[in-house]
Write a structure and sequence with these properties.
InterPro entries: CO_DH_flav_C, CO_DH_flav_C_dom_sf, Diverse_Substr_Oxidored, FAD-bd_PCMH, FAD-bd_PCMH-like_sf, FAD-bd_PCMH_sub1, FAD-bd_PCMH_sub2, Molybdo-cont_Rdtase_FAD-bd_su
Structural class: alpha+beta
Keywords: FAD, Flavoprotein
CATH architecture of the largest domain: 2-Layer Sandwich
Distance between the termini: 37 Å
Pfam families: FAD_binding_5
Number of strands: 13
Protein name: Putative selenate reductase FAD-binding subunit
Largest sheet: 5 strands, antiparallel
GO molecular function, one term: oxidoreductase activity
Strand order of the largest sheet: 4-5-8-6-7
Oligomer: single chain
Number of domains: 3
Length: 264
């Protein structure tokens, strides 16, 4: 339970406070994850990021920088944000929640349902920290960049114009997702990412490296994912739908008519 709420005026002050309080403290932006199950915090000290102005969107030499405290609704409303990422933010059905949840919070929570992450993986997103460190999102998700004092200040998309499409499959608008997938087309070939049917959100790099037709791609994706039986569907269904969705997204992009739909 949070007992102290600190409001630093600068990024340097926020980092200093985290070092001072150590494992007793947590950075807080919108609070949608820290104040609700299953990601409710047990830390005693909250260090607010609200006054640090980390919600800017900026284009620099063709790269797009997204502030860590941008809310999901701000992502949706900004035309500079790639269409697929804006649509992925819309997969969070509640506007009230979108107005509270932040981009950085969604990533740092590493929660079971991570509908933004496949698009960000397909776009080779990088995390930028207060100390200047830059870490690939893929490495962060693999646990290779965790630090008790690290303050995420922004995400960077090196190629925001990369064609990209995403899709969420769910039983209902407000229901838990079965899976979320994203496909992008880079100069090196397709970039394929999924979540919900793997233990953590994952780039399917082994499949990306192979030139596969639609049928072979469906089979390869189905074999590569590792879903579990639960109320959202059986293993067989999840393997099947993962292959279908990825193949459809790639076909849409290859034909020049990318779509990003939520299946219900």
């Amino acid at each position: 339970m949070i007992e102290q709420f600190l409001k630093p005026a600068t990024v340097d002050e926020a980092v200093r406070l985290k070092r001072q309080y150590g494992d007793k403290a947590v950075f807080m932006a919108g609070g949608s994850k820290l104040n609700a199950a299953p990601t409710r915090t047990d830390k005693k000290v909250a260090i607010s990021l609200a006054g640090l102005r980390l919600d800017a969107v900026a284009l620099d030499n063709g790269q797009l920088r997204l502030g860590a405290t941008l809310t999901l609704q701000q992502l949706i409303d900004d035309s500079r944000v790639p269409v697929a990422l804006r649509e992925a933010a819309g997969f969070v059905y509640s506007r009230n929640l979108r107005n509270q949840s932040t981009l950085g919070g969604e990533l740092c929570a590493k929660q079971d349902e991570a509908v933004l992450t496949p698009v960000l993986l397909a776009l080779d997103a990088e995390l930028i920290y207060a100390d200047g460190a830059v870490v690939a999102l893929e490495r962060f998700l693999a646990g290779g960049a965790d630090s008790a004092d690290a303050l995420l200040v922004a995400l960077r998309l090196p190629d925001p114009e990369r064609p990209c499409a995403t899709r969420k499959v769910a039983r209902s608008v407000a229901g838990l997702r079965v899976l979320t997938a994203a496909v992008a087309l880079s100069s090196a070939g397709p970039c394929i990412a999924v979540e919900g049917v793997t233990p953590t959100p994952l780039r399917l790099r082994d499949i990306e490296a192979r030139a596969l037709n639609d049928a072979a791609l469906e089979q390869a994706v189905s074999a590569a994912v590792a879903p579990e039986d639960d109320l959202r569907g059986s293993v067989a269904y999840k393997r099947y739908i993962a292959g279908i969705v990825v193949a459809d997204l790639l076909a849409d992009l290859s034909s020049g008519t990318p779509t990003a739909r939520k299946e219900i």
